[in-house]
Amino acid sequence: MSNTSKVCPTTVPAAVYLADWFERQPAAVLARWHTELQHQLRENGASFERWHTPSRQLDLYPWVIEAEQWQLIAAGIEQRHRLLAMMLADLYGPQQLLAAGIIPAELLFNCPQYLPECHALLPTAAQWLPLLATDIAPLSDGSFCAFADSCKTPAGLGFALEHRLALKQHLPELSQSVSKLQLAGFFRQLRQYLQAQHPGLTAILTHGERDAAYFEQAFLANYLDVALVHTADLMYREGKIWLKTLSGLKPVGALLRYLGDQQTDPLALDQHAKGVAGLLHSIRQQQLCCANPPGAALLDSGILLPYLDAAAEFFFKAPLTLPTVAAFWCKDEAALSVVQTNPQAYLMHDLPNEQQGLVDLDSLANRPADFIVREKLSVQNQACYNRYTGKMQLPGTLRTFSLFQTEATPLLLAGAFSRFGEQSSIQLPLAQQTQHAELSKDVWILGDDKPVESLLQTSYSAVTLSRESGLLPSRVANHLFWLGRYNERLNLLTRALRVALPLLNATTSLIPQPVQCFIDFCLAANGAQPLSPQQSVSKALRQLFDPEHELSVIALLKNLVYNAQSVREYFSDDTWYLLDKLQETIYQWPAEPDLQQPMSILRLLDDIVMLQTAFYGMNNETMSRTQALRFMDIGQHLERAWQTSSLLERIFVQTTPDASLMEALLRMADTLMTYRRRYRSELNPVAIIDLLLLDTTTPRSVGYQSKRLSRQIAALPELTTADRQRLPALADALAALLGELNAQQLIVQHQPSAQLGEHLQHIQQLLRQLSDELSLCYFTHAHLSRPWATP
C-alpha cells in the first residue's frame, strides 16, 4: 500500500483525487486488494448462495456523489416516500384515488399483490410505509430517474453496510482520505423507531431460505443487535405475537419483515403459507409494528408507477421532484401499440406471476391487462476495476433507503446499495438475478460527518451488571444442537475413512475385515445401507464422495453449514474463517477417488479432522458458557455416544474382531496411545470395551459422553411441568446403566456375551429417546398445546 497519508484537498474534486490515488497504486497491489475484498464477502457468507455459489462482488472503486447532487436526490426520495405512503393508506382506506379516476379500479382489484384483507389495517400513512427502498438510475445528462420501489423485502440495506465496513477495513488509507457522510446514524434511528413502537422485543423476520438474502438479514440483525427469527420461532397468543425461547414466551413489539405478503399469515391470507397465524390481527389491534406491513408489496408490483405524477398533483398540488420512469398499463390500447412497435425499449411487470423482465409480445397480446410496462432507461456508465485491464466502464444503478418515522420528513440513508452489469439486468429486481454474479460498489456521499461505525454508545451512568447472553430462541437452540451432531458425525466419518483407506489392497478383490466394518459404519452413520456381498468398496466410496449423492460426506457438510449459517450471528469472525477453510478443503475432494493412490485423499482427511477440531475448539474458546454453547455441546456428545456404541456393536457383536480391526478401532478413536500406556502391546477385547464404553475419563468413550450429557442437561432451563421430567430421568437412566456394567462380564473368553448386544442396543435407544425428549421440551414447546375443550 502507498505510504502517503495525504487527505483529499478541498480544492481538488474528490473524483479527480481518487482517480489520481488509484493511478499511484501498483497493479499487483490493486489485484491483491480486489482478491481480499471478495474473500471478505465470502467469509461473511453474504456472497454465497446456499452452497458455495458466488452471487456478488465488491468493486475497489467507490461511487462518489457530490453533496449538492445528493441533496436533490434526497428531496426527491423524501417526497416520493410520503407520496407512496399516502397512496397505500388511501388504497387500503377511503380510496379517493379510485373515486377520482386516477387509478383504474379494474387494475387495482385484479392485481394479486392487492390484499383486501388488509383494508383499514393501519390508521396513518407513516405506519403503512415505515421503510422504503427506491431504485434510481443516473442518466446521460447527469440527472437521476426513479424506476422501481420495494418494501416487501427491501434487500440491499445490509449489503450497503457490509460494503462500507469491508472497504474501510481493506483500504483504510483511501477511506480516510475523503470526507463522507456516515451510515450509522440511519441504522440508529431505524432501531430506535422499531423499539419505540410497542413494548416487547424487536426482531428481523427472515424468509428462511438459505440464499444470499438470508445472510444479509443475519448481518443486519447482528449490527442492529436485534433477534433474527423465523416464522417457526413465533406464535400468536392472547392478541400478541410471542417469541418462543428456552425460558418461555416473550412478547414481540416490532418486526422488520423480509417475508412475502402472502406468506405472512396463513389464517388471514394464504392458508398454505408458512407464516404466523394471527399476525395480521395483532397488527390491526396495534399490538405489533410490522415494517413493512402486509399489503405494502403493492408498490413492488409496479401498478402505481404510471399514476405517480397524477397522484402527486392530487395530494401535493405539485409535480414530482425526482422524475419517475415512464410506465403504462397495457390495457390502454395506445400504450400497447407503442410497446409492440419497439419492445426492446421496455421492461414489463407480469402481475399474476410476480415477474419482471424483457417484453414477451405473445403474452402481451394474449392478456394485456396483466402487464405494467416501463421504459428501459439508458443508464450512465461508471469506472470499475478490472484485474486484467485496470479499468472498465459499466452501467450502474442505486438503491436508496428511507425511513418514515412520523408524519414529518422521511430520513434518507447517506449511502446506497449499487448494482453494475447489463443495462436490463440492473433494472430488474434483486431476487431475479441468479444467473451470474453482480458487481457492487460502496457509495460515498461527500460531506463532513462525525465518524461513527458502531451503534454501541459510550455511557458512564449506573449499570446493572449481567452475565446473561440474551434470549435464545428455540429454533436457534435446535440449529445449535444439530450443528453439534453433524459436526461430530462428519468428524467420525472422516476418521473412519482415514483408518480404512490405507488398508485397501488393490491387488485382490477380497475386502479386509477392518475396511468392511468401517465402510459399513460410514454408510450407516449417514443413513445408507451397509455393504452387500455383491457391492464393491469402490462403489461404496463413490457413494460417500460423490458431491451430488444425498448421502455423501459433502451432503453431510452441507447439513453442518446449513445449521451454522442459520445461527451465524452466534459465532465469531475467526470461527467463520475456520468454517470457510473447512468448506474449501472438502470441495477439493475428487468425485472419483483413486483407491490405488489414496495418499492425496488421506491428506485431505487429515486437514478436515484438524479444521473440525479447530472449529470445535474455537467455539469453546470464544463462546460464553451459556445455553447456546450448551445445546451445541449436547448435540456433539450425544452423537458421539450414539455412533460409538453403534461402532462397538458392529465390531464386537456383529463380527469377530482380529488384532488389525481392534488396532484400527483404537486409531480411529484416537486412544491407541492411551491403551498402550495401560496395557502395553496386548490387544484385549475386555480392555477395549472398558476403555471405549465404560471409562468416564476417556473423552471418546460412551461413559464420558454420558457423564457430560448429565452435567449439561442438569444446567438447562428448568422444566416446570411434571410430564417434562423425563429428560433428566433419561440422562440418569443412561448413567445408571453404564455404571452397572462390567467389562469382564460383557466379554467372556474373548467372545461377546449375549448381554453385550442388548446393552448396546439399550444405550442407543436411550440416546434416541433423549434426543426426542430434548426436542419436545425446548424446540417444539409441545407442552403449550391445548386440547380442544369438550362440551
Description:
- This protein is α+β, with helices and mostly antiparallel strands and 791 residues long.
- Helices cover 46% and strands 13% of the residues.
- It is built from 29 helices and 22 strands.
- The strands form six sheets. Strands 3, 4, 15, 16, 17 and 18 form a six-stranded antiparallel sheet that branches.
- A hairpin with a 2-residue loop joins strand 21 (747-748) and strand 22 (751-752).
- Helix 17 (513-525) packs parallel to helix 18.
- The model is unreliable at 1-7, 46-53, 458-469 and 783-791 (pLDDT under 50).
Query: Helical region count?
Result: 29
Radius of gyration equals 31 Å
- Described by the principal axes of the CA atoms, the overall outline is elongated
- Tally the beta strands: 22
- Major β-sheet annotation: 6 strands, antiparallel
What is the chains' assembly state?
A: single chain
| Secondary structure: helix percent | 40-55%
Helix and strand content put the structural class at alpha+beta
Report how far apart the termini are: 79 Å
Rounded average pLDDT? 85
How large a portion of the residues is in β-strands, by DSSP E?
5-15%
Low-confidence stretches: 1-7, 46-53, 458-469, 783-791
